[in-house]
Amino acid sequence: MTRVLVKDSFSPRYLRLFGDTDYVAEDVENPDVILVRSSTVDTDVYPNLVAVARAGAGTNNITVGKATEKGICVFNTPGANANSVMELVFTMLGLYARKILPALCFTNNLHGDNASINEQVEKNKSQFVGFELAHKTLGVIGLGKIGMLVANAGVERGMKVVGYDAYPTFDNMHQLDKRVEVVKSMKEVLAPADILSVHVPLSDKTRGMIGTEEIDSMKNGCILMNYARNGIFNSYAVLNALNSKKAAIYITDFPDTMLKHQCVICTPHLGASTTESEENCASMAVKQLQDFLKYGIVSNSVNFPVSEMLPSQGAKIRLTVVTNDVPNMIATISAIIGNAGLNILGFDNKGNGKIGYNLIDLGEYVNSVIELIRQLPGVLRVRVIKF
After folding, report:
1. What whole-number distance in Å separates Cα of residue 339 and Cα of residue 90?
2. Where would a tag sit more exposed on the chain, N or C end, judged by fewer CB atoms within 10 A?
């Protein structure tokens, strides 16, 4: 029986997808897998853990480094919340462009009869004159699922869109509107942008990636938008840009000490907070755990390479072998299996520079083979799946 620890609130209909052979609860001890939204997961605490699935794109609440060292697979659900984030980006941009927040404050404080209210409106409405998004230049850094939708939505609003991605994927670029100008460097996005929207994951490489130098290279009065992760924009640089009027506004989903600044509009991390997004993330996370438990298949992992080999014909056993990504592991593992007189029916090896992941299909196996593989230097974890 697989023991599934559920760390946050999930609809029972998604938890039922695990099936009758799994024990799914919020109080599971020594879980095999964990399903989580926002709670913290320290992978060192769970000795039997083989995988964690986060219903969302970011994995800052999971100790991914520790998980990698122990051969624990960490999944996320990129793209499941993409539409909700994109819609919120343009909702907030529209609120600023049309001065909706001060306008609402004004109307909420109107008093008197209808004639008096109408007189106050006509007298004061000129202070709420805004601007249209059409013909403005939107710079998008990060053309993943969210960035691609933001770029396409900008084009649909009549904006000129310039985009850049350091690691573009075929699928996302294929879905990108042909009218988006894709450039080869961040500098080519920053210089022409009236509005900058960044959509990259938070990592050592992206932390503080929009700093003083980057903002200084933009137009005076530029609009900065962060609906990716807290830490992508350097707070000190943003604050200086706002105070000097280099940047007109900073619109973000991540409250911090700049919250009270008059040129900051902040939402309380609402990017994925729609019913549809939460459902998409939940179903995707559960499906990924199911595929991993049943077949060893890995997709959308932040620390394992993608490996999606279907079971080979005649296979009754699948070994999943997690190793350090070093030379000669495949040959050594194959030799152990061959010396035991076992026939390999299917073999898939993938690596990402840190983790090597092997799916090995057999007609049968013996425990001694498993133990020999487990004892190899560089082998982090071996799991046996029976079909």
Report:
1. 62
2. N
Q: Where are the domains of the chain?
A: 1-81+273-304, 82-266, 309-387
CA angle 31, 35, 40 (to 5 degrees): 90
DSSP H or E segment with residue 127? none
Each residue's pLDDT, cut to its tens digit, for the chain (387 residues) gives: 899 999 998 888 888 888 777 788 888 889 999 999 989 999 999 999 999 999 988 898 999 999 999 999 999 998 899 999 999 999 999 999 999 999 999 999 999 999 999 999 999 999 999 999 999 999 999 999 999 999 999 999 999 999 999 999 898 999 999 999 999 999 999 999 999 999 998 888 999 999 999 999 999 999 999 999 999 999 999 999 999 999 999 999 999 999 899 999 999 999 989 999 988 999 999 999 999 999 999 999 999 999 999 999 999 999 999 999 999 999 999 999 999 999 999 999 999 999 999 999 999 988 999 999 999 999 999 999 999
Identify how many contiguous H helices and E strands the chain contains and give both numbers: 13, 16
CATH of range 82-266; options 3.30.930.10, 3.40.50.720, 3.30.230.10, 3.40.30.10: 3.40.50.720
Rounded Cα distance, 258 and 278, in Å: 28
| 135: its two tokens | 């013909």
First to last CA, the chain: 15
CATH topology assigned to domain 309-387: Alpha-Beta Plaits (3.30.70)
Nearest partner of 167 among 206, 138, 139, 193, judged by Cα: 206
CATH, range 1-81+273-304: 3.40.50.720
Residue 366 is encoded by which pair of tokens?
Answer: 């013996």
